[in-house]
């Protein structure tokens, strides 16, 4: 766990660097919301790890785009 003041590229990059420094070796998949900061950090620090959007976030974002009726 790490405290950050924003979900920025710098915050996520620092978070993933810290995990790697503490022994994280292989990451097979990262699932998160679609925040660009985390996606960029994954590409930079964990280049072999695929990323996918969380289904809950995807559904919530999709339901915000369609009519309630």
UniProtKB/TrEMBL annotation:
The keyword DNA-binding applies. One of its GO terms (biological process) is DNA transposition. It comes from the Bacteria. Keywords: DNA recombination, DNA-binding, Transposable element, Transposition. The keyword Nuclease does not apply. One of its GO terms (molecular function) is transposase activity. Belongs to the transposase mutator family. Required for the transposition of the insertion element. This is Mutator family transposase.
């Amino acid at each position: 766990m790490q405290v950050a003041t924003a979900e920025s590229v710098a915050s996520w990059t620092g978070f993933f660097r810290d995990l790697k420094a503490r022994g994280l070796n292989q990451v097979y998949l990262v699932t998160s919301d679609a925040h660009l900061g985390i996606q960029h950090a994954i590409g930079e620090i964990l280049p072999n790890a695929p990323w996918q959007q969380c289904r809950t976030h995807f559904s919530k974002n999709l339901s915000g785009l369609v009519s309630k009726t």
